[in-house]
Amino acid sequence: MRLVTAIIKPFKLDDVKKALETVGVAGLTVSEVQGFGRQKGHTEVYRGAEYQVDFVPKVRIEVLVDGADAARVIGVIVDAARTGSIGDGKVWVTAVEDVVRVRTGERGTDAL
Amino acid sequence: MDTGDTAWVLASAALVLLMTPGLALFYGGMVRAKTVLNMMMMSFGALALISVLWVLYGYSMAFGDDIGGGIVGSPFEFFGLSGLLGTAGLDGGFAATSLVFTVPSMAFVAFQAVFAIITVALISGAIADRARFGPWLVFAGVWATIVYFPIAHWVFAFNGAESETGGWIANDLLAIDFAGGTAVHINAGAAGLALAYVLGKRRGFGSEPMRPHNLPLVMIGAGLLWFGWFGFNAGSAISANGQAAEVWVTTMVATGAASLGWLVVERVRDGHATSLGGASGVVAGLVAITPSCSSVTPIGAIIVGALAGVLCALAVGLKYRFGYDDSLDVVGVHLVGGLWGTLAVGLLASSAATAGVDGLFYGGGVDQLWRQAVGAFAVLITSFVLTYLIGQAIQKTMGFRIDEEAEESGIDNAEHAESAYDFTSLGGGGGGGIGSGAGAARAAVGASSGSARGASE
């Protein structure tokens, strides 16, 4: 099993969610995060005073998938989240040892 | 007594009262999320305290018979306002025992009360985020007593209106200050500058971002101020007549021009016309037209306003150059705008307007201009010096400023044991909440990008 983690532009959340549904992903976790990459922050001006805002708001999506599906899920996320401009985000995959469904106690791929 | 005039003055008083809650929103939106409640409470505290002091002795100090030299009215003449209560009239209704012009004294008491309140509240913008609430209230009471009530007497107490003899600016100097460019705005602006020096800079001033946490609040506040200002200026005619109507129009158009002026400066200098700039321009225009609204033509008002917007947009940068933390630009907007508007009477007054005086550019020479300058700088210097002394006295005795830890964690919690916003459903402050559906989540994410983050460090 794999955990696919994606950092994307907030306005792409809806597109990514819909795209994941079309490939049969049954659940995901979303959180608001902040950070910077090559995009860096941005500058805001209030009454003439410039403020450097270091961290850009992003959305983090986490999806647990069967190892065999990981490549396809990554592809779907990347396609849906891409705008082509700087700051589109990153997707990475990590191995997951075990998963338990809390309600039933099912383990492994049955719990996905 | 004129019932139409009375109705307008009473309505105007209510309009001007709304300006102080409006100011609380205007200021509150500009500070960080951890200090918004204290910012708003400084205005509401002034509203509460000054209304009581005004009834007790403030009105009497401003409008009681002059005790000599046009400096201050007798605090005892109308102490508690008991002498102004109406008695049953011939037709069975209550008749006013005394009149100011054509309205009952008590209507004038109400109208002038709300001027005293907002003048005190205006000062608070200079000391955002760092003044203990108790000492602020002590300051508010002492400042109103020693500075505002006498200066209101100088400017607003005309001989024979309420008492036989009034203040020196109104009756001897003959400077024109229709609604309070000197007594309200220069006064509050100079006081704000003095207090900014007394209290010192906020932690992180100039190095940490201190972005406005809620610009829509600022816009609502600016809107309420503009609305209330029609009472402030047009109500100052103390009559529902042609002068009130002319003043209403000059107040509207100067404000529009000022907002445009501020936005043009921003667009040219910074690249973007901002909402904060638009709202600030509104207030700058209202300040500048306050003294001059009865003495300029509508075209003159556009010039007064446009230049106010440009001047104030440039003046708000002074604090970085000179290193004083006038947090919300009371100096840049109220002191500079008030000075410009007061001097503008001497430059742009036209005898076609109701005040009937010509300024320098309308062939009147410098006669009115020097009167305006003397009035403006007399108020500026008096207010600055007295405020500095009052502020230092409070700082040395009670301590005016909050401690560092409280300032860092946020004055709302330290002084009021409250936080303005519940950011998360898990309880406690801080953090950001994500909505349940995708659409809601997107809106929440978008909102957090512009605001709360800078606030919580």
Describe the overall structure.
- The complex is a heterodimer of chains A (112) and B (457).
- With 112 residues, chain A is an alpha+beta fold.
- Chain A has one domain: 2-Layer Sandwich (Alpha-Beta Plaits).
- Chain A has two helices and six strands, in the order E-H-E-E-E-E-H-E.
- In chain A, strands 2-5-1-6 form a four-stranded antiparallel sheet, covered by helices on one side.
- In chain A, strand 3 (42-46) and strand 4 form a beta hairpin.
- In chain A, helix 1 (13-22) runs antiparallel to helix 2 (70-81).
- The mean pLDDT of chain A is 93.
- Chain B is mainly α and 457 residues long.
- Chain B is built from 17 helices and four strands.
- In chain B, a hairpin with a 2-residue loop joins strand 3 and strand 4.
- In chain B, helix 1 (3-30) runs antiparallel to helix 7 and helix 8 (242-270) packs parallel to helix 10 (298-315).
- Chain B is globular and about 60 Å long.
- At the A-B interface, helix 1, strand 2, strand 3, strand 4 and strand 5 of A face helix 8, helix 9 and helix 16 of B.
Question: Any key phrases for this structure?
Answer:
heterodimer; A: 112 residues; alpha+beta; Alpha-Beta Plaits; four-stranded antiparallel β-sheet; 20% helix; 37% strand; B: 457 residues; mainly alpha; Ammonium transporter fold; two-stranded antiparallel sheet; two-stranded antiparallel ribbon; 4 strands; 2% strand; globular; disordered C terminus
Chart the SSEs and their pairings.
The complex is a heterodimer of chains A (112) and B (457).
Chain A: E1 2-8, H1 13-22, E2 29-35, E3 42-46, E4 49-53, E5 56-65, H2 70-81, E6 89-95
Antiparallel strand pairs in A: 1-5, 1-6, 2-5, 3-4
Helix pairs in contact in A: 1-2
Chain B: H1 3-30, H2 36-63, E1 87-88, E2 94-95, E3 99-100, E4 103-104, H3 105-123, H4 133-156, H5 168-173, H6 181-199, H7 215-234, H8 242-270, H9 275-292, H10 298-315, H11 318-322, H12 330-348, H13 367-397, H14 404-409, H15 411-416, H16 438-450, H17 452-455
Antiparallel strand pairs in B: 1-2, 3-4
